[in-house]
Amino acid sequence: GKKAFSSHVIDCTFPAGSGPDGMIQALERICDEAADAIQGSIGSSGAQAVILSDRLTGPDRMALPSLIAVGAVHQHLLRTKQRPKAAIFAEAGDCKEVHDYATIFGYGCDGVCPYMAYEALCKMNHDGIIEAKAKASMTDEEVMTNYRKAVAKGLL
């Protein structure tokens, strides 16, 4: 049968208060983890995608900026000749505007899930802000579809 597509999620947060050293250690960790996941050291077979996620951000965890995380992993995988073997995706709370997408794609990202933008849009929709501006009622799915279309138009 068909081989399943495998992915590996990498936590792109680091302990709050650990300063620049904590950030550097986190960058080294995520680069090593991405290479290991693609090589197959993590799990049974090599991952065809690595997902760099900042979802664990909170009072005790700082997020690496997505551009830094993506750029570091992309360059590391190029150096180790593993970049053609896997896609890099970002689950990024800091991607909101067209420029954010343009730069993250330029840094080597293949796709983005802008979960914080989606959450903010859904909250605005529930609070009636979008309906008041658009003069029309929309479902959350319609709002997010419109957002994706607007970002795509901005990029192209």
Features:
156 residues; alpha/beta; Rossmann fold; 2 domains; 4-stranded parallel beta sheet; two-stranded antiparallel ribbon; 6 helices; Aldolase_TIM; glutamate synthase activity; Glu_synth_centr_N; Glutamate synthase central-N domain-containing protein
Task: Describe this structure as you would to a colleague.
- The protein is of the alpha/beta class and 156 residues long.
- The protein folds into two domains: 1-113, Rossmann fold, CATH 3.40.50; 115-156, no CATH class.
- Helices cover 50% and strands 15% of the residues.
- It has helices at residues 19-39, 66-79, 98-106, 115-126, 129-134, 140-155, and strands at residues 7-11, 13-15, 49-53, 61-63, 87-91, 111-113.
- Helix 1 crosses helix 2 and helix 3 packs across helix 6.
- The longest helix is centred in the first third of the chain and has 21 residues, at 19-39.
- It holds the Pfam family Glu_syn_central.
Provide a short characterization of the protein structure.
The chain has helices at residues 19-39, 66-79, 98-106, 115-126, 129-134, 140-155; strands spanning 7-11, 13-15, 49-53, 61-63, 87-91, 111-113. By secondary structure, it is α/β, with parallel strands linked by helices. The protein folds into 2 domains: 1-113, Rossmann fold; 115-156, no CATH class.
SSE blueprint and pairings:
Blueprint: E1 7-11, E2 13-15, H1 19-39, E3 49-53, E4 61-63, H2 66-79, E5 87-91, H3 98-106, E6 111-113, H4 115-126, H5 129-134, H6 140-155
Parallel strand pairs: 1-3, 3-5, 5-6
Antiparallel strand pairs: 2-4
